[in-house]
Write the structure tokens for this entry.
Amino acid sequence: MTTTTLGPTRRSERALAPDLIRGAMLLFIALANAGNCAFAGQPGLDPDPHGIARVLNFGLSLLVDSRAYPVFAIMFGYGLVQIARRQERAGADPRRVLVRRNAWLVGFGLVHAGLLYFGDFLGAYGLLGLAATFLLVRRTDRFHRAVLWLWGLQSIYLVVLPVLAATHDWSGGAGLVNSPNPSLAADSYRASIGDRLAEWPAHTLSVLPAIVIVWLGIWAARRRILENVDQHRTLLVRTAVIGLGIAVLGGLPYALVAAGVLHPAAGTVDILALLHDVSGEYAGPGYIAALALLGARLSRTGRVGAVAALGQRSLSGYLLQSVCWLVLFAPFALDLGGHTAFAVLAAVGVWLASVALAAGLHRRDHPGPAEKVLRRLTYGHR
């Protein structure tokens, strides 16, 4: 192989589906993180909902919480293979690019966490990317089939956890409780920086088991599923139905707790929360499959360009959201937290604004500012 690497992927080389998926799912990231910041804790839902808050709690818990990050984990793995494949076609060693890019992602994550938001995923993805570069990316198809077996084994939880929940006390009167994040409740920006830097390592380590989710994206990319949606339509339909079906059924009991409908014992709520989280991983492939199918249909009408433009600039869109949450919800800023409805409206508004900004950059053929910096650090001046 040569030592010369290609520059970043050109606009004409990009497939629509991955960008559309990233752009659309940034709305779910916004909904999850806005709630986290509005209530200074996780999962970021009103612990004593009334009226419309009951409906919003139910919908957010059932469709968003613990259901958005698996999409980006899969897409991250998918992107690793796309980058590696492009370098290999040019006769270059893909590991050089992947190592530089993922190492810089860790740096981006540290800065993001220190300045804006403790719940950063960039650092964790950088570490996962480094591990995948050396352990997974250049393996054979036979080796990668193992990830399907791992997902199959994990499905045992989907049988065991409902049985455990059914045998526990359902008359205890407990409900949803937010786990506090001190950085989100800090009374000064300086204090929040210290809290975020203390919280970030533990949060980053908690994301590392997502290597199995990233690995599924690597498997899918090797089969070019999102580049050839029509060819894999049957697989995508089945994945959408089964993945989203598991996510909805597994998340339903906890969503009813979040809505204030069910009040089981605290131990039962813990089991339902675990079932909610495990089943949420299946929303990752489910949402990706559904959006890929939808994108294939809408692409004929030209109605997905702005959302896909945001997907091409997802790093900038993600960082912009964190700036907005700090301004809107921090106690030392506007301090508008504590209301689920406002958090949802803010999330939708920020996402729509980021779509409009991305569309404007796309018309001028400009990358997002964060993408521009990351590309310069990864590829140099190419």
Notes: The chain has 18 helices and two strands. The mean pLDDT is 93. Residues 24-379 form one domain.
